Amino acid sequence: MRLLITGGAGFIGSHFTDMRLKRHPRDLVVVFDKLTYAGNPANLSQAKKNPNFKFVQGDICDRAAVDRVVKKYRIESVVNFAAETHVDRSILSPEDFAKTDVLGTQTLLEAVRKFKLRKFLQISTDEVYGSIERGAFKETDPLKPSSPYSASKAGGDLQVLAYRHTYGLPVLIARSSNNFGPRQYPEKLIPLFATNALEGKSLPLYGDGLNTRDWVYVEDNCAGLDAVLEKGALGEVYNIGGGNTRTNREITYGILKILHKPESLIKRVSDRLGHDRRYALATTKARTLGWKPQWTFAKALQHTVAWYRDNPAWWQPLKSGEYLQYYRKQYKV
Ligand code: NAD
Ligand code: DAU
Is the CB–ligand 1 distance for residue 302 below 6 Å? Predict the structure, then answer.
């Protein structure tokens, strides 16, 4: 397959790129990425060694640039990871979220239509369903997003489904739960808390710390996305989750224990605006594709935290960025 991976210089997209090159050695893989603050060429250092890998810097909202890359590399299918992804940033400045996550998705769909591509896989999120007190969301549940981020992702999903309904495009949607693993930008809970603890800084736990997420190790998520791309039925939505529902407090204690750091580093701070209480996904449908998570949560957390401990050169420069400076001031950490 001649595959275009948008947003492939970010966290999940770079893991997916590595997995595709390994599992499908005859594929051509082209990463198309704007290199926003979250895009990091270092994430593709392994992929760059492979002659079947190409990188093009570009914006998914730029129709001419998207058309050029599709034509130049005779692209057959697209996997769209490109997005603004951090909920707290979307609360501060929502505009780029609507641009990239809705209009960028639509620009890619136009390219799929124009060049009659074989498949388009949209990478979406469990956050489009909103919060759930008990049980787990199924793919047929209604969308009820509550942050500017999740509303933008839901907008992207609706564009994808509308292009299926109206033009019959060969689309798929995967909705993943909270990923964790190496190379995740240190603004998200697990890498932020692991690196703060390593630096002896406090861990700002929002509200009562009892908000719950369904955690999936990034390699398990990528294997699920690969199964959807290869075997999913066109027009369908697939949930990909790890089934590891944990409160933020549990995650925080887990990180401190692995690093042998004191619980006194935990700092209770004011809550995130509109903070969703709990996410959980039912993954029966994805499992019919022959996929299931392989990593236990404990082993994956241990492995992830050890990676941040052993790779300060990757994350230290990122923590001096403008947003994280603002964030530190806000929570006095
Ligand atoms: P990330 O923030 O680490 O990376 C996003 C990438 O997209 C970066 O490389 C960035 O440069 C690129 N990008 C942003 N805007 C772009 C644009 N306009 N044009 C081209 N490239 C652009 O994100 P991530 O955590 O790896 O998430 C990847 C995808 O998975 C996103 O669509 C996100 O909504 C979805 N998702 C993430 C999680 C999670 O827990 N991280 C869970 C479910 C779904
Ligand atoms: O559910 C999937 C989503 O998971 C993805 O679609 C998003 O792209 C990704 O960013 C993530 O969103 P969350 O908001 O769930 O992740 P985050 O790591 O920002 O926060 C996880 C939980 O930890 C959440 O309840 C807020 C809390 N938190 C987060 C930070 C950054 C804190 O208590 N303190 C913090 O400093």
Answer: no
| Burial environment of residue 175 by CB neighbours within 10 A (0 to 12, 13 to 18, 19 or more) | buried
Residue 15 belongs to a domain: yes
Contact 37, 321 (CB under 8 A): yes
Order of strands, sheet of 178-180, starting from the edge strand that comes earlier in the sequence = 178-180, 212-217, 244-247
Q: What is the DSSP letter of 63?
A: H
From the CA of 188, how far away is ligand 2's center (Å)? 6
Q: Is the pLDDT of residue 55 over 90?
A: yes
Whether residues 142 and 192 share a domain: the answer is no
Distance 145 CA to ligand 2 centre (A): 14
- Domain of 194? 181-213+244-274+295-320
Number of structural domains the chain divides into: 2
Whether pTM exceeds 0.70 = yes
Please write the tens of the pLDDT for every residue from 135-182.
Answer: 999 999 999 999 999 999 999 999 999 999 999 999 999 999 999 999
